């Protein structure tokens, strides 16, 4: 089979690998769709030889990219129960593997395992940008028949991350939420927040992304490059500021502005990976009784719930995708995605 490998400094290569065969507790998935996620760019841009992420062991040899895998089970290991997986089943992958036995793992949060170095498929273990993917059966999340493989790929990270963050903030139809960044995760947050009944203020410096936010139901859009976003949000909320704010951008200025535009007793949530934020604690946090939370992807249970919610509310997850690629187009796909001015891309096999 062939798989996309990031070689560092915005380089990649379509390499050949042996077709995988399942060990006792594993399955092999024939890939149908593998989404492109903003966090891929950290690996795509990294200097040659640099570790893939802080605290994650560097694997030996090339590693196939892609952590939004979706496809069909084509082989199962001898110890896999039929209730876990069966040949022909449509599945997403919860793209982490911990010890499987600690409280975090047993609750579905394998990425939070403290007992062993966590495998992250597409980072320090082979991911979905390939023809096939071998993973433990306990990482599988069923894909409802009503959803396409592309939709399943989005839910497997970007859209699922947005949905989980909104749940973590207890968003309701009574709330006004300001979402900083309208890339794939931010746009998915706009999409789900509207489906949950909230009023949405979408912010981005890209006019293209703001237009897409409007199409996804944003009630107001703000370009921080040409407006004071804090003042604009204050004006739109009649001086109260937003009940909730969400940063998906990782931009230091956006993070500060998200905090400053959250109301007294409000909640601000970090989703975007990396970067820093510097804030004057007393006026912007302490004296406003502000709650700061962080939300890192989701559990396998929340991933399944995101899929269910998408079906029951008739959410067009596929609408997120602006580009569909083949593996042979990988170089062109990531060169475009690297500019971060357009929508979401997906590899279809």
UniProtKB/TrEMBL annotation:
Gene3D superfamilies linked to this entry: Medium-chain alcohol dehydrogenases, catalytic domain, NAD(P)-binding Rossmann-like Domain
Which CDD domains does this UniProt record tie to the protein? THR_DH_like (cd08239)
Required cofactor(s): Zn(2+)
Q: Where is the Enoyl reductase (ER) domain?
A: 8-347
Show the PROSITE patterns listed in the entry: ADH_ZINC
Q: Which UniProt keywords apply?
A: Metal-binding, Oxidoreductase, Zinc
Membrane-crossing segments per the record: none
Origin superkingdom = Bacteria
Extract the GO molecular function terms from the UniProt entry. oxidoreductase activity, acting on the CH-OH group of donors, NAD or NADP as acceptor; zinc ion binding
Q: Which family does it belong to?
A: Belongs to the zinc-containing alcohol dehydrogenase family.
Give the protein name, as stated in the record: 2-desacetyl-2-hydroxyethyl bacteriochlorophyllide A dehydrogenase
Per the UniProt record, the source organism is: Bradyrhizobium lablabi
Taxonomy of origin reads:
Bacteria, Pseudomonadati, Pseudomonadota, Alphaproteobacteria, Hyphomicrobiales
């Amino acid at each position: 089979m062939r798989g996309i490998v990031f070689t560092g400094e915005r380089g990649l290569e379509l390499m050949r690998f042996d077709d995988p065969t399942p060990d006792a507790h594993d399955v092999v998935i024939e890939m149908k769709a593998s989404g492109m996620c903003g966090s891929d760019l950290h690996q795509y841009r990294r200097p040659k030889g640099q570790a893939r992420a802080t605290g994650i062991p560097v694997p030996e040899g090339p590693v196939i990219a892609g952590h939004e895998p979706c496809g069909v089970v084509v082989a199962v290991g001898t110890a896999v129960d039929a209730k876990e997986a069966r040949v022909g089943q449509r599945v997403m992958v919860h793209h982490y593997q911990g010890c499987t036995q600690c409280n975090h793992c047993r609750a579905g949060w394998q990425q939070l395992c403290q007992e062993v170095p966590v495998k992250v498929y597409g980072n320090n273990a082979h991911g979905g940008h390939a023809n096939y993917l071998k993973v433990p059966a306990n990482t599988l999340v069923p894909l409802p028949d009503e959803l396409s493989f592309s939709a399943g790929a989005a839910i497997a990270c970007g859209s699922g991350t947005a949905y989980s963050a909104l749940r973590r903030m207890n968003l309701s139809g009574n709330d006004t939420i300001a979402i900083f960044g309208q890339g794939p995760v931010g746009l998915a947050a706009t999409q789900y927040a509207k489906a949950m009944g909230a009023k949405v203020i979408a912010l981005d410096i890209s006019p293209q992304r703001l237009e897409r936010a409007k199409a996804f139901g944003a009630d107001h859009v703000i370009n921080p490059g040409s407006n004071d976003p804090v003042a604009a949000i204050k004006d739109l909320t009649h001086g109260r500021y937003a009940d909730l704010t969400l940063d998906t951008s990782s931009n230091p200025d956006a993070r500060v502005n998200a905090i400053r535009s959250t109301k007294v007793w409000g909640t601000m949530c970090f989703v975007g990976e990396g970067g820093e934020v510097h804030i004057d604690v007393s006026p912007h946090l302490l004296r406003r009784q502000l709650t700061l939370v962080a939300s890192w992807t989701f559990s396998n249970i929340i991933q399944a719930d995101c899929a269910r919610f998408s079906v029951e509310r008739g959410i067009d997850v596929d609408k997120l995708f602006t580009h569909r690629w083949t593996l042979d187009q990988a170089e062109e796909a990531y060169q475009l995605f690297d500019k971060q001015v357009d929508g979401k891309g997906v590899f279809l096999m």
